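Researcher: Structure for this, please.
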Amino acid sequence: MTHVCLADLERAVRDVLPGEIWDFLAGGSGTEASLAANRSALDRVFVVPRMLRDLAGSTTEADLLGRPAAVPVVVAPVAYQRMFHPEGELAAARAAGEAGVPYVIPTLSSVALEEVAAVGGRSWFQLYWLKDEKRSLELVRRAEDAGCEAIVFTVDVPWMGRRLRDMRNGFALPESVTAANFDAGTAAHRRAEGVSAVADHTAREFAPATWESVAAVREHTDLPVVLKGILAVEDARRAVEVGADGIVVSNHGGRQLDGAVPGVEVLAEIADAVSGGCEILLDGGIRCGGDVLKAVALGASGVLVGRPVMWGLASAGQDGARQVLDLLAAELRDAMGLAGCDSVSAARGLATKVLRYG
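Model: Predicted structure, token format:
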């Protein structure tokens, strides 16, 4: 079946994946208020299109961390991608390479980071802070040695949020899926009623990151360092002060603090506060090319997209993930042209209006 939008694909994949794996991918924390708000907040943003512009030579190309990308999109880190397809991260990374966009290798990858980086394309590495600082910095070194272009330090997970779907399901990883980047033992595979084994595993392995952790990473690598999970203006300013090359404005897809503000709600304020001091990306709820246009108009260099790429991966492996990225690119070209923008830089000049209902 041909999917003309990502919502079509989402519905189809929901009927194919086992229920508890779908819940692991789709769910949020608590009441899932932040998860829902990510979409509703984007739906309230409207751009003011410009007319009678010369659109000859239009392009969706953008610079992300100083290197060109075919579209201002990055494949977000999603844990344990072999749950969705046997090739997991390898297939998703190949798709991103074909589409000309960066792929963020997760700390909780089900394929070793060196293998994923070796498929080609642009790889960034996502870092969770572990209880053993030496192990954390060893992951940074391995990523650098493997040819990754950036470290995306996720700073909003001192521990995993209460993801009630996983708890109700007593969710545990399939035996065939492991955390391939480090010896994580068997905690993530042990089922217990009312307990997420993945949350239990991360509680054993993760430690709350601090600004000192950021400094340690910054001192340990010459790669660009991007802090993922920033929502407060004060934290954005401090990120610039400590030498971060970028920030991802994100509430972790609604999977951490339930009630955390959607990133798009604070994006413009953060962009104004940072004032070019570092690159800004938006994460959370992106479901079409028009959303990418909105993010750029509000001050982002680009966006991260996670769940939709996993829908594509689950539906048809590498080809399915590539189709998702191609669809986003086609939708962005259409949205930019209809808004009178021949380039991503022109889209940054669009005015926006936020409609408040009720």
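Researcher: Any notable elements?
Model: The chain has a mean pLDDT of 97. DSSP finds 14 helices and twelve strands in the chain.
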